Amino acid sequence: MIFFISPGTAFKEEIKMLKHHLKKFTEFKGKSKKDSGPSDLLVPIHLENYLHKQIKKHKNLKNYFHYLILKFQKRDLSSKFPDAAFRKTLYQSKNQQLIRYSFRPDYQDWYKAKFIGFYFSLSVCRLFSRLVDLDREEDLQIINLAEELIKLGKQKIHFHFYFKIFSNSKMISKKMLLGKNFELNSA
Known about the structure:
Layout: H1 7-25, E1 39-44, H2 48-58, H3 61-73, E2 98-103, H4 107-119, H5 124-154, H6 169-178
Antiparallel strand pairs: 1-2
Protein name: DUF1564 domain-containing protein
Organism: Leptospira interrogans serovar Pomona
């Protein structure tokens, strides 16, 4: 018995086999195994205290990693990673004292981190360290602003405003620049 296979059928079978083969070797197909092994992140020592505080706040590193990915996902990060897109992948320098953190990230968060890292030509560790650094900078700005507002609230500043209606706008500007008070004239 002789079977004749049309060239179109053989080609379709070959494509099916290639797709099946590719599925086995693709690390991320939009998702990976949920019970995959732990991942390691190397973080510079100067971020250690801040990272410990955030891990306590978010209960664990997995939650904080998820928080950072969501927080910075919708922002334009190109200004934070200038001239890095599609170049050689940058890793953290070996001269830094790096601390290893092992955890089991959510597979979707890890996929997003790898994708963002690929776009900006950064390793996941370097990307994570930079996101932690950006988070720390934002927290410091908020803390500094709050402290300034508290200081302003404690100071006793007396403002006296006197307004005078002028027909000449140049005169108003000149008096404002010289710091002179205005009086209200209804005439």
